[in-house]
Amino acid sequence: MNATPVKCSVFIATSLDGFIARPDGSLDWLDQANQVVPPGEDCGYQAFMSTIDALVMGRNTFEKVLSFGEWPYGTLPVIVLSHHPLTPAESVPTTVTFSNESPTELVARLGAQGMKHLYIDGGQTIQSFLAAQLIDELTITVIPILIGTGKPLFGPLPQDVRLVHLATQAYEFGFVQHKYRVCR
């Protein structure tokens, strides 16, 4: 069986200084920023999600999402990557599975299952998929705040990652969204 080509995309918000969370994982700065977003505006998130076959995230991101209360992904398959065995709580939806596969192994397996578009989320997970040259598109919404320190979106890479600018959207409430395609 030939694997389907799989597109891997990132859709994430950062502070202007490139952080996705505070050092302790807090998103208070993002929650505060979202208070100025007009009702019904989601900066393209639902349109993006409508194209996704599965979401891949790391354990830290998964644990953060669980702290939100209501599960935000409905019936979308979610694969949580972790090098350490996880025992899911009973409250974890049945659409969540766990894997210790490498990004390359995971994408090959999901492609063989017919998945065509993956949403890659979480700093370390995004960094590992970039290092493996698996990210195809990046949509980064820059929030107008400097938090000074925290968990960076990007980290060390084995080689440069060249990008082609696809679009920039400036919102009246101060967010600026950039979309890039990764050059191969």
Describe the structure.
The structure is a single chain. The two termini are 25 Å apart. The protein is 21% helix and 29% strand. Strands 5-4-3-6-1-7-10-9 form an eight-stranded mixed beta sheet. Strands 2-8 form a two-stranded antiparallel ribbon. Strand 3 (54-58), helix 3 (59-66) and strand 4 (78-81) form a beta-alpha-beta unit. It is an alpha/beta fold.
Instruction: Please work out how many helical segments DSSP would assign.
Output: 5
CATH class, please? Alpha Beta
Describe the global form. globular
- How many domains is the backbone divided into? 1
CATH topology: Dihydrofolate Reductase, subunit A
Arithmetic mean pLDDT = 93
Under the CATH scheme, which architecture would be assigned?
Answer: 3-Layer(aba) Sandwich
Low-confidence stretches: none
Give the biggest beta sheet.
8 strands, mixed
The SSE order reads EEHHEHEEHEHEEEE
